[in-house]
Amino acid sequence: MPLNPNNPLVEESSVMEFYSPKCRLCNSLLDLVMEIKSKNSDWLNIVIADSDFRERETAA
User: How many helices and strands, by DSSP H and E, does the chain display?
Assistant: First the structure.
């Protein structure tokens, strides 16, 4: 894992969040995930993958 340039003793970590706009649980957790992302952006990368993107793209 790459080291954090602001603090070389802290390693960076990544989280992959699978999200669907249709999912009530996903929507209820989204604010919490975004808050965690902003408060820990110096060492934590959160990638939000929209699992319905392809479906909406082909329907358009």
Answer: 2, 4
* Structure-block tokens of residue 31: 């604010």
- Would you call 48 helix, strand, or coil by DSSP? strand
Of the candidates 17, 19, 11, 6, the residue with the CA atom closest to the CA atom of residue 50: 19
- Strand pairing report for 3-4 and 7-11: antiparallel
> Percentage of the chain surpassing pLDDT 90?
57
47 by DSSP, 3-state: which? strand
Residue with tokens 């060492």: 43
- Per-residue model confidence (pLDDT) at position 47: 94
